[in-house]
Amino acid sequence: EVQLVESGGGLVQPGRSLRLSCAASGFTFDDYAMHWVRQAPGKGLEWVSGISWNSGSIGYADSVKGRFTISRDNAKNSLYLQMNSLRAEDTALYYCAKAPSITIFSQPFDYWGQGTLVTVSS
Amino acid sequence: DIQMTQSPSTLSASVGDRVTITCRASQSISSWLAWYQQKPGKAPKLLIYKASSLESGVPSRFSGSGSGTEFTLTISSLQPDDFATYYCQQYNSLWTFGQGTKVEIK
């Protein structure tokens, strides 16, 4: 059974940093691209970032480019999101999501974790 | 950037009703469209990919159609478990979601 478990969320002041993690199990992690998607409270879904199986292809939404960095450690079956210079508008539930292929492009998201909440507030 | 617009934003329906949700893309996305179902406090679940392909394990009352810029999700006979929010997503160029359609009990 595919499982994605996010962690690392919490309350953080504007301008500070936070690192999210996603622990994957139930599938061969390095055979698939992975993504981060966020959902502000009571709002819709927003793609944040994606990374291919070997980290060779990476993409970011314009809203986080230059502030967030996605990475993965295939030996540890883990996905990460380093978030710097956080803003109030980054407050959201952050989901880890799996693609059905090694490439990030032209693929939907077939499994999602339950999310970790990030609150940016002074 | 490709914008996705869903209609309606809210839909009131009864068990057994046929329900249709529309999603429009701001430019052609071929058939690179997915539909997701999200229930309160839960993660989204993939229902349909490539506009009309049913994800494994999803009931056959769900179907998708369309190509280019106009797409529809149809639930042939609404069941109690189907009351939820539905999102379309384009994956032709990066990834963009529609704003969601909440299907509520009439």
TrEMBL record, chain B:
Protein name (Swiss-Prot/TrEMBL): IGL c1411_light_IGKV1-5_IGKJ1
Protein localization: Cell membrane; Secreted
GO biological process: adaptive immune response
Alphabetized PANTHER family for the sequence: IMMUNOGLOBULIN LIGHT CHAIN
Gene Ontology CC, one term: plasma membrane
Keyword annotations from UniProtKB, A to Z: Adaptive immunity, Cell membrane, Immunity, Immunoglobulin, Immunoglobulin domain, Membrane, Secreted
Ig-like domain: residues covered: 2-89
InterPro entries cross-referenced by the UniProt entry: Ig-like_dom, Ig-like_dom_sf, Ig-like_fold, Ig_sub, Ig_V-set, IgV_Light_Chain
